[in-house]
Design brief:
Elements: H1 2-23, H2 27-40, H3 43-46, H4 53-61, H5 65-87, H6 91-96, H7 98-117, H8 121-137, H9 170-176
């Protein structure tokens, strides 16, 4: 755990260094730092994928579009696998994992935003359509009334109010009023 924490901290430091080098227009040095980070701390071995996002952006900014796309694809695959797993769970179990589902959807969306920000229009449009399919898998959590799925349907016709109170004449309402 300590080694992992240190590696993630180091990855974060490299990401900030990359951003600074890009801001200073030291593109070749920034490219070297990104390559060192990705070669020595591969995506697959450390988790905490949000720490990879600056490198996707960095690859675009240093002109390494293919490397940016490849890194995006690795992250996309990870998020899709996790979301597919959760989507196949019964709804009651999905609710137990909302604290993982929602952040995964948000992270996936942030990665698409990186494509958009870096004007990778063709990829961004294609990936947005795919992402929307994942949103649809969890649309229950984005409804106006998320409790809708929790309420059992009324199957007893005697419990359904079929008459509006507005349709009942006043004299009848008065005759059925409960005395105080």
């Amino acid at each position: 755990p300590q080694t992992r924490t240190q590696a993630l901290s180091f990855r974060g430091n490299l990401a900030r260094l990359t951003e600074t080098l890009i801001d200073e227009n030291k593109i070749d040095k920034a490219k070297d730092i990104i390559n060192i980070a990705m070669e020595n701390m591969p995506v697959e071995h450390f988790g905490y994928y949000a720490f990879i996002e600056p490198f996707v952006d960095g690859y675009y900014k240093v002109g390494e579009t293919e490397k940016a796309r490849n890194l995006f694809q690795k992250l996309k695959k990870i998020y899709q696998e996790r979301l597919d797993y959760f989507a196949n769970l019964p709804f009651d179990e999905q609710r137990l994992f909302l604290d993982e589902i929602i952040p995964d959807l948000e992270a996936y969306s942030r990665n698409i935003d990186i494509l958009i920000t870096n004007q990778d229009k063709e990829n961004a449009e294609k990936e947005t359509l795919i992402f929307n399919e994942y949103i649809d898998k969890f649309e229950r959590f984005y409804r106006n009334d998320p409790m809708e799925d929790l309420m059992p349907p009324t199957s007893d016709p005697d419990l359904i109010d079929s008459t509006s109170m507005d349709a009942i004449p006043e004299e009848i309402k008065d005759s059925i009023a409960v005395p105080e």
